[in-house]
Design a protein that fits this description.
Helix 1 packs antiparallel against helix 4 (114-120). The chain is built from six helices and seven strands. Strands 1, 2, 3, 4, 5, 6 and 7 form a seven-stranded mixed β-sheet that branches. The termini are far apart. The protein is 34% helix and 30% strand. It is an alpha/beta fold and 200 residues long. The chain has one domain (2-199): Rossmann fold. This is Lipoprotein. It comes from Pseudomonas solani.
């Protein structure tokens, strides 16, 4: 009985409840475009209305750190001829990029097969790196593009979702970096596709 009893205790000790946390505010280094578009852009403060993010961000929907990180991402991507920060004087031909995200979180939940597999294998499932939790990363957002006078020119939407298996050996912080980067890249790709059509 010691084996099955130990399996139950160990699996219960590792199997925590569900937790939802906001996505990070950093954006990984992007792939660099071969040549920038001739369009100069200005970045508006990024808005995040996801309730988990707002709660962790002291009730604020804007994050200066996230806006700065996104500006650095845009510059490193080499997509545009110039990237201006919020508050900088606009040039007459600038287009203003307004990013907003209504879903921006990572949800960690227990894996349903964890307990029975741990019991059947007398905890072997745990020690050999079997899945204990699933991380679900969700990002959905919008990019609105306006001219320097405030007239709306374009509006784009994206939704990115990813799942990752977590085991005893990968119980680190939740990570939604791939979905964050995919969401921004998808919005920018849509925008640049329209820019390309205008220059043809």
């Amino acid at each position: 009985m010691k084996g099955p009893f130990a399996a139950v205790l160990l699996s219960l000790s590792l199997l925590g409840g569900c937790v939802t946390v906001p996505q990070g505010t950093d954006f990984p280094a992007p792939g660099k475009a071969a040549s920038p578009a001739q369009q100069s852009v200005a970045l508006a403060p990024v808005e995040v209305t996801d309730k988990t993010f707002v709660k962790w961000n002291a009730g604020q929907t804007q994050s200066s750190g996230m806006t700065l990180s996104l500006a650095n991402y845009l510059r490193a991507s080499n997509r545009f001829s110039n990237v201006r920060m919020p508050g900088q004087t606009l040039a007459a031909d600038d287009q203003v990029l307004s990013f907003s995200f209504d879903t921006y979180n990572v949800h960690r939940r227990p894996y349903g097969g964890y307990f029975p597999f741990a019991l059947i294998t007398l905890t072997g499932y745990i020690w050999f790196g079997g899945t204990s939790h699933i991380d679900e990363s969700n990002v959905s957002g919008r990019l609105q593009v306006s001219d320097a006078q405030g007239k709306l020119l374009h509006s784009y939407q994206t939704r990115q979702y990813g799942e990752r298996s977590i085991s005893l050996y990968s119980m680190g912080p939740v990570n939604g970096s791939p979905e964050r980067q995919s969401a921004v890249a998808d919005l920018l790709d849509q925008y640049q596709s329209d820019l390309g059509k205008q220059t043809q």
